[in-house]
Amino acid sequence: MTLALTGWMLYAMFVVLGLMGLSFLYSLYNALKAGSFSSDLFLSYLKDLLFYVFPLFMLSNMKALDPTGFLLLIGYYLGALGVALKYLGSFKK
User: Fold this and answer.
1) In whole angstroms, what is the distance from residue 31 CA to residue 28 CA?
2) pLDDT computed for residue 38 by the predictor
3) DSSP states of 16-69 as a string?
4) What average pLDDT values come out for the chain (93 residues) when binned by 10 residues?
5) What's the CA gap between 79 and 85, in Å, rounded?
6) How far apart are CA 69 and CA 93, in angstroms?
7) What are the Cα distances from residue 71, in Å, to 7, 16, 78?
8) Are 4 and 56 in contact (CB under 8 A)?
9) Strand, helix or coil at 78?
10) What pTM, to 2 d.p., does this model score?
């Protein structure tokens, strides 16, 4: 199985992973500033990688199984948009 991120799918994954990284750095800064650093910070982002990013990779790899050619792409982009909005919303808190 090869990684099948092409074109806009790659840019959508860059946005998702970039927002995850920024959110992690922001949370790390706040935790260090407050003196409440714990391993839960790392574990929550590892969990998010498993629950949010891994299914996006699975959708991109199942693209060849889609007879219409666009149903899994729509699911991928909606999933990437949902994850991006989740992390943008976390900056408000």
Assistant:
1) 5
2) 85
3) HHHHHHHHHHHHHHHHHHHT---THHHHHHHHHIIIIIHHHHHHHHTGGG-SSS
4) 75 95 93 88 92 93 87 94 94 79
5) 10
6) 38
7) 16, 20, 11
8) no
9) helix
10) 0.86
